[in-house]
Each structure stands twice: as C-alpha cells, then as structure tokens.
Amino acid sequence: MKKISLLAILAFAVLTVQCQSPQLNSEINPQTGQRFDLRLGTERTEVFLPMLEGKAVGLVGNQTSRIGETHLVDSLLSLGINLKRIFSPEHGFRGDVEAGAHILDGKDYLTGLPIISLYGRNKKPTAEQVAGLDVILFDLQDVGTRFYTYISTLHYVMETCAEENILLIVLDRPNPNGHFIDGPILEPRQRSFVGMHPIPIVHGMTIGEYAQMINGEGWLPNGMQSPLFVVTMENYCRHKPYFLPIPPSPNLPTPQSIALYPSLCFFEGTNVSLGRGTDTPFEIFGAPAFRGNPEFTFTFTPRRIPGKSENPPFNGQLCYGVDLSQIPFDSIRAERRINLSHLIKAFQNHPDQSNFFLRNSFFDRLAGTSTLRQQILAGMSEEEIRETWQPGLKQFIEMRRQYLLYDE
C-alpha cells in the first residue's frame, strides 16, 4: 500500500484547482470558438510534473491525450517521467476501434509500453495491473453524456485507486456539451457501463468535476474515497463553444455529430440506423422500413468501414431517413436541450411499432429508465415527456453545484 496522505492531497488540490473567472478580455478564435488564453489541464505541466518526479506512473489515455500536437506519452517520456504502463478505454489507445468492439491487451507500437484494456471483460484495473504504481494520470476527452463510457472508466479507475491507495491525477478538459443539463435521471435498476450513476443524460460537467462528484457522493463501493487531484484548466468557460481538435471516438468525427450525439444516441436501442457505416454517423438516421414515406426521403446505405463500423445496422441495405448534417452547428447548440422530436417522429412513422425498440432492453439502459420508452409508446408529446424530467433535474442541479470548478 502506498503511503499517501489523502487529507494532504485533498487540501493541496483545493488550493490548486480554484476556477479562474472566465470574464476576461480575451479574444475568441473565430474559426474554432476557442479562447486564445484557454489552457487545458494537460498543458499545465508546471502543476503536475513535480508530482510525478521519482514516481512510477500509469496513464489512462487515448488519441486525445496530447499536449498541443504531441502525445502525452511522448511528452512524459521525453521529460524523463517513469511511465510504466498505459490503460486504454473503449475505442482503444489510438482511438481506432469501433464502439462495443472487444479490445485486447498489448503493446503500444510506437513506444513499446504495455497497454491494458479497460473495455470488454476487464473494465476495472486489477490490483496486479496497478502493482508498483504510485500515480495514475487520467487524460481523456469526454463529450458530456452519461452513456459515453469514459466516465464509467473513470469510476472503475477511481475504485481501484481507492482500494490500492494510489493517487489519481485528472487532467481536465472542456466539455463540448457542457452548456446545458438535460434528460431523465438514471434509475438504479438500469445501472450499466453506459450509465452508472443517478445523473441526467447530459450533466454539464467536466470530467474533473465529475470525478469530484463520484468521490463526494459516495458512489464508490462502501463509500470509499479515491486519492484525487484535479489539474484544472485556466480561463475555461463552459458556455463558450469548444471544437475538439481530435475526434474523441471514430464515430464522432465532427462538431455536428458531437452536438447531435445526446439526441441521436437513443437510436442505438432501436431498429433505426443513426448512420454508422456512413461518412456522417450521428448526423443522419433512417431505416429500410421507411421506404415510401414522404417524411423520410434522404437515402443512405451503411457499409463496413474498418476501425469505425465493422458490421453496422442494415449493412448493405438502402435506408430511408433524415439528414441533419446540414443544420448549422450554432443552431444545434442554441437548443440547449436533448431533441426528442427525431426519436418520436421515427417511432410514429415506423410501420412496425411493436419492433421499433430492440428486445434487449438497450434503449432503457441508454435512457436510464424504462419510463421514456413507455411514454413514447403511450403517445406522449415531447413537452409532456420533458415535464416529467424537471423534478429530477432540479435536484441534480443543486447537488452538482458543490462540485463545480469553473464559474457558471
């Protein structure tokens, strides 16, 4: 067991992670919407490098783990940090594995470092896999939704760090969907890797803030606390648009797909394609069943795309649907809510409504509740459904406030 004083770590963290006000007279890049003076947690090496000196270090990372144009692994090695092993989330270390695909342990082909998969059978690092480590860095670009599995990986890493008394350093990054909070609260019986905690679908937090919530709400087994230090960003404002320089996963390649993801991911639990196996995943939806329907005139044919969609729904079949890819990004963002109209429209127009939802209950796990499916089956309107979310959202917003590291 490592001799780390949790109290001292938390005290140091509180002093270091205070949010700097985003109300500065700094310019906005007109091409990206990013503040010129924004510094990511991974860029604040003066904060976390001294904590790595003389330590055996592990890294939970992927293709988004970078300092500028350089991968964090390369930066750490060049600085003489004793990086011992890499832990890889869903989509793999290089981000070239499709959603749900089994990922094997191996070695990084560029550095030779061992890679341990945290997706598939082994979602939680074992005591043997973290043996000898003093510190674990966590640097993943999240997209701010409950069913995007990086926050589930965060939970399991924190669980192991709590059990083995290993310091976890989270290098914070912007949440591209951090400007709103929406969706039903997850019910305990729907807990899965696409939803582990009682939060709404869109939570409006950075991954560093979320780590604090996991600790603070006692969501680790037996109320354990992970030794935690969050390296905050400088001059981050959650209401400013942030365009990811590197796609966080193979099927979220554009700002539009990331902005539409909270609304379209529901289709993963239905017999409707959301564009996997096309050049515009999460920007279109449709199915062969909509043939001849005047509301679904856009056509596409899913195909195998190595590394992105090995066997997409309706592979090789002509789908009739709706193209959302031309909606301006600013218009999607300005809605500040999950758009249920696409899901309701697809259900109401589907010729076989009894088979619209998959029989494996995946839709309920994505929604975090069976109520949404039942409401759609009952013919409730979007506004009627949204009204039922409000009491849970109000309670969550109050709970969330105490874990925020940046001004609202």
What's a quick, concise take on this entry?
It is built from 11 helices and 12 strands. It is an alpha/beta fold.
Structural summary, described in words:
The protein is of the alpha/beta class and 408 residues long. Helix 5 links the parallel strand 8 (167-171) and strand 9. Mean pLDDT is 90; it is low at 1-27 and 95-102. The protein is globular and about 65 Å long. It has a seven-stranded mixed beta sheet, with helices on both faces. It has eleven helices and twelve strands. Helix 4 packs across helix 5. 26% of the residues lie in helices and 12% in strands.
Tags for this entry?
26% helix; alpha/beta; 408 residues; disordered N terminus; seven-stranded mixed sheet; 12% strand; three-stranded antiparallel sheet
Order of helices and strands: HHEEEHEEEEHEHEHEEEHHHHH
Q: What count of helical segments does DSSP give?
A: 11
What would you call the shape?
Answer: globular
- Low-confidence regions: 1-27, 95-102
Strand residue percentage = 5-15%
Structural class: alpha/beta
Q: How would you state the average pLDDT, rounded?
A: 90
